[in-house]
Amino acid sequence: MKTLLVRTHEAWLATLMAALMSKKTENKRVLTEFSDILWRHFTWIEHDLIVRGVDYDYDRENIPIKVERLGVLIADIVRRMNDLEMLLVRCEDEALKDRIRTDLEYMRYALGKLEDEEVTAFDMHRTYRDIELDKEATDALTLFLFEESYKEYELIMIYNYLQAHSDDAFLNRIFQILIDESFFHLRSFGEMMAEMGILGVPRVIHQSLYKVSDIEKFLLDGIEEEIAAKEQCKELSDAVASKSDELAKFFDFINYQENYHIELMRDAVEHFRKKQADG
Amino acid sequence: MQVDPELIGHMANPNNYGSMEEPDAIGIGENPENGEKVIIYLKVEEENGIPRIEEIRFQAIACMTTVVAGSIITKEAEKIDFPTAEELIAVTLGMLENYPPEEAACSEMVAVALKAAMDTYEAKKSDPEIPAIVYKIEQSCTPEPIPNPLETKENA
Known about the structure:
heterodimer; A: mainly alpha; Ferritin; about 0% strand; flat; B: alpha+beta; Sufe protein. Chain: A; 5 helices; about 45% helix
């Protein structure tokens, strides 16, 4: 089952990346839906491991995605799904096994129906839509997107791990909001990266980041990171404001979203402290 | 930082990124000021008593600049013997003297992690149970201080 978790993690990311690089609306829709389904499989398999007391982590192999035709990556995703089906024999939860198996069966069928398309997500042209940025602003945007897309993936995995190991409804509600928000940010930044020809899979995160021993310290550090991320969004918004109102508005929008994350995390800290004090 | 296709390549697909199963040695480079760290994993083979890096992997709990430094330095360190790797570390650290501390810190963290991994390998010869050696960096890359997040709320 541990291998099933790792391979599902990889299939989820490969499918998400395929969705980001696709420019055809229907392909993008299907791939986005399927990546969401694979993510849910991932969390259910993880839950099964926890229930059975199996130690696991979020380590995985690097995922090659650099293709010139989407069909090449789709074929790789289908191959990954074939592997998942074979690994399912180790799943003891019959209901979960059946659910995943039938999902995989349909997804492979539907992926086979997708129209092939040219991929430009790796050509490094580094322009976004028809917006003309100077080299300094383009470089700042490039660095921001690489740094923050990894950060959002990291946050998804950390909050997912914390949620999976918590039975506190108050905290889990906050963790779920933060997971959903990070998914939105990861997709938004990933779309921009694909459009600019610089798409990359976020790197593997180290166990020490999500196997957190001091949740209060983790949340306090997280608040500081959110404040720093807000500042980066503000700087980026200022840097591109004179060239693109559209981009400036987008980064202000992300910046304001961070305000709510910070408040949620402060609520989580206060709740956690109260819970500790109450014993 | 100069952003060009080579740098983007390192950010999108860093060389040798990830952990390693059953490494012969692990070393850690750490920034004591902000807790950022680089972990290097080595598989080593000996030829005429001289250790040689057969495989190298790294992980960074740090910024993208550190990942780029790790991608470049670990690529250089592939398939070289320990004396050559010592030279690589010395050259890297020497070059960093000309860089601003906040930029130098990232590469220094990778260089000292490699040194720590090599020293761990040697130390394991006399004590196989020895844990991964940790070296701390001297350069500072501490960002501007951020106000205490809870104080901000309480004072609001």
